[in-house]
Amino acid sequence: MFKRVREDIQCVFERDPAARNLWDVMTTYPGVHAMIWYRLAHFLWHKGLKWLARFVATTARWFTGIEIHPAAKIGRRVFIDHGMGVVIGETAQIGDDCTLYHGVTLGGTSWQEGKRHPTLGARVVVGAGAKILGPIMIGDDVRIGSNAVVVKDVAADNTVVGIPGRIVHKKNDQVLKKRQQMAEKIGFDAYGLTQGADDPIEKAIYGLLDHVQAQDERLAQLSREIERLGGGRVDMDLPKLDDVVLEPNDPAQAAHLHPITDINRSQ
């Protein structure tokens, strides 16, 4: 038990840059305190001292705001960051090297006895406010986004976001590079969105970028064919977005601004 407590403390320095020294972690980290109380309560539970184990767990909840049932199975080097509002049910299982943030619930969906709480594999990260419910399996290296509600199994190496939780697939690197080039060309600030997230507004904007990219390529091909057949060269250069300088209090000039320029300058 004491070896695992030492590992619980040491892993804080690897995952929290705010951790300064051992004294700081031992005295000011409720997640560490909760894990120490849990290790003791879990030991008492398996020695048959179940009331005492529950009393220790309840005392830990008063002091830390983290509720862990003594019968839950928690692996090594598990870090609960901030911790307030974390709830871990009786039949929950957490693998090694997992990280849980505040407001996380590993809860059940049934009043029937038996396995009713989730199982987390190794190195799982669960974002703030996420809810993982029922006797489901979360594979190794899964990332659960903040406030997600997960009620189905998740295979290893996936990222889950949303309500209900859905898997986010990583976009092709070549597609992302094309979108970034087109975004820079037309003046869209692609850094304002998280490209890995399956957000409906992002999908709409990047759908437009894909459409513009395809049009740009077709027009360039058409221009080359016209020039090959003896026609004049088609100017494919887009106007620069910073060509127009807005004079203050000049509504006549503002009325003729390029719409994309207008959007950029209003931000």
Describe the structure in your own words.
It is built from 8 helices and 15 strands. With 267 residues, it is of the alpha/beta class. The protein folds into 2 domains: 2-168, UDP N-Acetylglucosamine Acyltransferase, domain 1 (3 Solenoid); 173-266, no CATH class. The strands form 3 sheets. A 6-stranded mixed sheet has the order 3-6-9-12-14-15. It has a 5-stranded parallel sheet with strand order 1-4-7-10-13. It has a 4-stranded parallel sheet with strand order 2-5-8-11, with no helix packed on it. α1 packs antiparallel against α3 (30-46), α3 runs antiparallel to α4 and α5 (173-186) crosses α6 (200-228). The protein is elongated, with a radius of gyration of 27 Å. The N and C termini lie far apart (56 Å). The relative contact order is 0.06. The model is unreliable at 188-196 and 253-267 (pLDDT under 50).
Notable traits:
UDP N-Acetylglucosamine Acyltransferase, domain 1; alpha/beta; 267 residues; single chain; 2 domains; 8 helices; 5-stranded parallel beta sheet; disordered C terminus
Alpha-beta content class: alpha/beta
Number of helices: 8
Order of helices and strands: HHHHEEEEEEEEEEEEEEEHHHH
* The CATH C-level class name of the largest domain: Mainly Beta
Placed side by side, the strands forming the largest sheet appear as: 3-6-9-12-14-15
Number of domains: 2
Radius of gyration: 27 Å
| The named CATH superfamily of the largest domain | Hexapeptide repeat proteins
What's the mean pLDDT score?
A: 77
Q: Any idea what the shape is?
A: elongated
β-strand number: 15
The CATH topology of the largest domain turns out to be UDP N-Acetylglucosamine Acyltransferase, domain 1
Largest sheet: 6 strands, mixed
Strand content: 5-15%
Uncertain parts: 188-196, 253-267
What is the terminal separation in angstroms?
56 Å
Q: Helical residue percent?
A: 40-55%
CATH architecture of the largest domain: 3 Solenoid
